[in-house]
Design brief:
alpha/beta; FAD/NAD(P)-binding domain; 2 domains; seven-stranded mixed sheet; 9 helices; binds flavin-adenine dinucleotide
Length: about 325
């Protein structure tokens, strides 16, 4: 019987494990992929937009070579936190369900079953990449994540999306010699409000340079009509149909969490700005089901700092409660 089982080894889950150890409660983190799996899936070599103080969990400083860390530096930092602090993390094991028993929980994975007094869902929101729902989206040339540029040098690439991930993918591809088209709603291209998830200025400015140098095409999108083996059919914001020759498509329009496990044990959800999120107390991070906690990207906290801060706030309170029960 563990005091706390944590689902997910992203920044929220690793911080929770680190704090659980510091506050003397036993823990197990179950991760379906690798430590820091969402970061592992960032584009290779990406420089993240957060500063080190927003990304650090505890001791063991994050010391990037430049001002901000790369994907690789950030990933190594979180891996070192797990190893140096001997956090109890099981990777490549997927949680399939959680059962609420009389006074504790049973966590069922694809490898084993475990029991705990409390459970923290820190599972991020990468489970369901959003789709365009258009004909041809199932073709193998259509990707919902952007990992690296080199396979696409001299290829005709279309990126569909209006946020920073789409902007970064378009920039990397244009800079590395792909024939790149960014299909974006005009309001997203013109959006400069960081709170509304705009393309960050340090991505937008070089994108504008690529545009001036004619290394990037911008297409103000009405809708994507169809993706075919060697071309894509788009409708512009003014209703004009255009067919572009095409080798690869990146659909980068966000992703949603899978809240099924939470709903199955009675956790209430609400539809917020970014889609459905669990209902929880903003001080304790406990849901309406006693003993079930949430933290990180699939709550209202969309960035790493928020994920870390949530776990730092919730664990001391939870630990005090668990100690008082013993
Ligand atoms: C390209 C890109 C760049 C970004 N750059 C930044 C940045 O610079 N700064 C910033 O603050 N944010 C950035 N973000 C967002 C940031 O990655 C998230 O806010 C952060 O990862 C949230 O941490 P988390 O622990 O809540 O979730 P995640 O890091 O998503 O961790 C959740 C973990 O849970 C695991 N999991 C899910 N379901 C299960 C299951 N059933 N069983 C077991 N394990 C499960 C997942 O595999 C995952 O490892 C970026 C995102 C992307 C895509």
């Amino acid at each position: 019987m563990f005091d706390l089982i944590i689902i997910g080894a992203g920044p929220a889950g690793i911080t929770a494990a680190y704090e659980a150890k510091r506050h003397g409660i036993s823990h197990l983190v179950i991760e379906k992929g690798l430590i820091g799996n969402t970061i592992y899936n960032y584009p290779v070599g990406l420089t993240v937009f957060s500063t080190t103080n927003e990304l650090e969990i505890g001791e063991g400083r994050l010391s990037p070579a430049r001002e901000k860390p790369t994907r690789e530096e950030l990933l190594s930092y979180y891996v070192r936190i797990v190893l140096d602090n001997e956090l109890n993390v099981r990777t490549e094991e997927k949680v399939l369900g959680v059962e609420k028993l009389a006074d504790h929980f049973r966590i069922i994975t694809d490898k084993d079953n475990y029991e705990s007094l409390a459970v923290l869902f820190a599972m991020g929101s990468m489970d369901y990449p959003r789709c365009l729902n258009v004909k041809g989206e199932g073709l193998s040339k259509v990707h919902f994540q952007f990992r690296e540029t080199y396979p696409w040098v001299k290829k005709r690439a279309l990126i569909v999306g209006g946020g920073n991930s789409a902007g970064e993918a378009a920039l990397f591809l244009a800079q590395e010699g792909a024939e790149t088209t960014l299909a974006i709603f005009r309001e997203d291209w013109e959006n400069t409000d960081p709170k509304q998830g705009c393309i960050k200025y340090w991505v937008k400015q070089p994108l504008e340079k690529e545009l001036q140098q004619k290394c990037l095409n911008l297409f103000f999108l009405g809708e994507v009509i169809e993706i075919r083996e060697a071309e894509v059919e788009l409708e512009s914001e003014t209703g004009e149909r255009v067919i572009l020759p095409n080798d690869v498509v990146f659909v980068l329009i966000g992703s949603d969490a899978d809240l099924t496990m939470l709903k199955d044990i009675g956790v209430e959800t609400v539809v917020g700005k970014y889609g459905a999120i669990p209902v929880y107390d903003e001080v304790t991070f406990e849901t309406n089901v006693p003993g079930v906690y949430v933290a990180g990207h699939f709550t209202a906290q969309r960035h790493i700092k928020g994920a870390i801060d949530a776990s730092k706030q919730l664990i001391p309170q939870l630990a005090a409660r668990i100690h008082s029960l013993k």
